[in-house]
Amino acid sequence: QKEVEQNSGPLSVPEGAIASLNCTYSDRVSQSFFWYRQYSGKSPELIMSIYSNGDKEDGRFTAQLNKASQYVSLLIRDSQPSDSATYLCAVNYGGSNYKLTFGKGTLLTVNP
Amino acid sequence: IAGITQAPTSQILAAGRRMTLRCTQDMRHNAMYWYRQDLGLGLRLIHYSNTAGTTGKGEVPDGYSVSRANTDDFPLTLASAVPSQTSVYFCASSDLLAPSYNEQFFGPGTRLTVL
After folding, report:
1. pLDDT truncated to tens, each residue of chain A (112 aa)?
2. Which whole-number Å values give the CA distances from B29 to A41, A76, B34, in the listed order?
3. Which residues 58-77 of B are in CB contact (within 8 Å) with A?
4. CA separation, residue B52 to residues A74, A75, A96, B73 (Å)
């Protein structure tokens, strides 16, 4: 069973702080990794994708991938109350399998 | 329209009834997916289709069927609904021919309650 593990939270940070969200996965052959943001009552929205080891930055968001340790993280700099949402980590295990396996999500609350 | 639409937005259904959830995308993506999302269980894949005319089973396919007659539409049918199928259902799509082929984009969802 290929698994994606996230801390369910809630993770609470003050406005302006850095929020750090973590995700581990079980299969070393995983090829691509994604972070989705989901507001309460809404659908998941893709915010970051990362395919190779290292950091990928997009605005206030940075995704970090370490395949040797089998973890991927998302950093949100200068957190805003509007960042309050559940963040879902998703992993594609590669090969001819185009399917994604999702973690259960981490609830982030940014306090004004 | 742009993106993925789902219908209905919400539905209350009596157990034993047949129900079809509709999903349409206008992005010409070749792959489409159906997920259900339940509290504490996260998103789970029900069925998928990598191209028109083909479908496959996901993690939780029992009680559900799909068809993919064309690129744009991917309906999900519950032949005889049961209360355990109460959930929020999301349709998603991806372009398997693009470099970012695993990026999936989600529709707004259908909230289904089976009584």
Report:
1. 678 999 888 999 999 999 999 999 988 777 889 999 999 999 999 999 999 999 999 999 999 999 999 999 999 999 999 999 999 999 987 665 678 999 999 999 999 9
2. 25, 30, 14
3. 58
4. 35, 38, 17, 9
Find the closest chain B residue to A100 by CA distance: B102
Of the partner residues A42, A100, A103, the one whose CB lies closest to the CB of residue B104: A100
Identify whether the C-beta of residue B52 lies closer than 8 Å to the C-beta of residue B30: yes
Task: Indicate the residue type of A58.
Answer: D
Query: What's the rounded Cα separation, in Å, for the pair A8 and A6?
Result: 6
Preceding peptide of B8 cis, ω within 30°: yes
Of A34, A43, A98, the CB nearest to B107: A43
How far, in Å, CA of B113 to CA of B108, rounded? 16
How many CB pairs lie under 8 A apart between chains A and B?
A: 49
CA quadruple A109, A99, B18, B83: dihedral sign: negative
Judged by DSSP in three states, A70 sits in coil
Q: Which amino acid is at A57?
A: E
Taking the alpha carbons at both ends of chain B, their separation in whole angstroms is 33
